[in-house]
Amino acid sequence: MRVLHTADTHIGTRQYGLEERRADFSQAFQQVIEIAIEERVAAIVHSGDLFDDRYPSAEDLHEALRTLFKLKEAGIPFLGVVGNHEQRRNLQWLDLFAQLGLAVHLNLEPHELGGICFSGLDYSGRRELEPPHVKGGVLVCHQLLDRVHAGGELHYEDLLNCGAQHVLMGDYHEHQVWQEKDVLITYPGSTERWSLDEREPRGINLLDLETGRLDRRELSTRKFLYISDEEDPIKGINAHRQQLKGAVVCVYLAHDGQSIQEIEEHGRSRGALAVRVRDHREELDEQEQRVSVQLEFGNLDSLISERLAQLNLSKITQDIDGIIRHPKIVDSRVDDEVTRLLEAAEKNGK
């Protein structure tokens, strides 16, 4: 039995404030449905973040519903879990779609399809998790694995031993697959580039649950062009002029020269949909400032002492300053120590 595994479709993402990008994310989801129908899969399994927001617009809901009705007409069930972006307090969008007969909201009670059990775990927060124990079949979840993110909520070894034969993940936007101990664990990646860092082609997984064979199918998405910080931004954009029309251009800037506005306008004037500039100069400046601050703090006590001496303050004021900055007097004791000092000074008539 073959299923189509997808995740992180993020319908409704109006990237860079552009309607064209919102349409791109919706069209990518439509491609997923078309592939499922073309390949005659037994089901689509969606591992969360169908929507980019818990409050999708009426337009985004309408397009998603229309696409899911098309899938239903083809007789292909849509099985899914809830991701962090779309998660609501009570009723989830998947629950609404389930009531309309368009989807199955997977949970820890196994859902049987074609003799295989599917269990699901909705997004459960950024805390360490122990996966549920299942008796074979498929576990679907939307979390980060420690293999892809330091401090990921789920541990790879725990998933290998949770009882599932296949673990279909979402939340991480790059395609990953591991196969060990007769267990397959995979992320399909996002269906559109949700961030500039997502350089690899977008796609979906076609998975045979009986043989474990996984085939990758790329999606047709908007072109992203990258101009490295070793290139002159204007010359780099000009060098890609044949590919600029409708593309999103990312320029990495490390040297002084053209302004960001000038670079963005130059790219758009030559047909780019959007031009994003990552200014590495600011990062370098911040690093230099952090070093400078660290050096200054190393001499801060001596600088303060010198300045106080120049002000010719009274001895009692200097004593209070000494208490406040004394390394062995904790903050909770400062008031008591200052009070004691003032009482002693008053008694001595100072």
UniProtKB/TrEMBL annotation:
Which segments does the entry list as coiled coil?
Answer: none
Manganese recorded as keyword? no
Claim: Nuclease is one of the keywords in the record? yes
Q: Which InterPro entries match?
A: Calcineurin-like_PHP, DNA_Repair-Maintenance_Comp, Metallo-depent_PP-like, Mre11_N
Single GO MF annotation: exonuclease activity
| Keywords associated with the record | Exonuclease, Hydrolase, Nuclease
Pinpoint the Calcineurin-like phosphoesterase domain residues.
Answer: 1-129
- Please give the name of this protein: Calcineurin-like phosphoesterase domain-containing protein
Q: Which organism is it from?
A: Fraserbacteria sp. (strain RBG_16_55_9)
